[in-house]
Inverse folding.
């Protein structure tokens, strides 16, 4: 479980093909992983992966065919920056919202415009996900917990403050770029419960 509060930005150092799967070698940048152990979960741009060979400055992670097909990790290239968040422990504050790291689909940045000192980003959602995104609700974009400012049938907008633009990979996005989208966990369960009422 994660919060969507990115704790560091890493870099994909190497992509090692492993048959139909891949192993990513990731440098963790300023994120200290010295307390991490083999098998710990880590969110990489919003996708929950299992840490292999953790060291102070990085780790490896195997990426399944499903994850490669359903997330932007399937098109990642060496040298690309990724958002990193180790799994939540019970002693940590919940600063964002509950995030599972189970990406629902890849959205697309349509536009970004100045909004005071912040920037307003508009994203197009994969088909069928719009119903789960509500104004003033939460959404996770590339592992970043964000508040939805506007929501339409197949798109939504968020306002990113300078801090978020600086410390996450979202500041480097351009129109047309793909992002990992995870809808709010509660929306999934509300729909499921409704099927039985």
């Amino acid at each position: 479980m994660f919060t969507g509060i990115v704790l560091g930005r890493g870099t994909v150092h190497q992509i090692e093909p492993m048959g139909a799967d891949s192993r990513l070698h990731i440098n963790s940048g300023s994120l200290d992983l010295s307390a991490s152990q083999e098998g710990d979960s880590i969110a990489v741009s919003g996708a929950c992966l299992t840490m292999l060979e953790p060291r102070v400055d990085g780790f490896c992670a195997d990426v399944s065919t499903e994850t490669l097909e359903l997330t932007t990790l399937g098109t990642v290239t060496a040298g690309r920056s990724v958002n990193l968040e180790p799994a939540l422990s019970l002693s940590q504050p919940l600063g964002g919202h509950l995030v599972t790291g189970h990406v629902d689909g890849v959205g697309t940045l349509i536009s970004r415009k100045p909004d005071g000192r912040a920037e307003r980003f508009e994203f197009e959602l994969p088909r069928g996900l719009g119903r789960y995104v509500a104004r003033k609700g939460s959404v996770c974009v590339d592992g970043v917990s964000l508040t939805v400012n506007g929501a339409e049938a197949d798109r939504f907008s968020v306002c990113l403050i300078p801090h978020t633009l600086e410390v996450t990979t979202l500041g480097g996005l351009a129109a047309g770029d793909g992002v990992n989208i995870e809808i709010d966990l509660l929306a999934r369960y509300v729909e499921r419960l409704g099927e039985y009422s």
Remarks:
- The two ends are 28 Å apart (CA to CA).
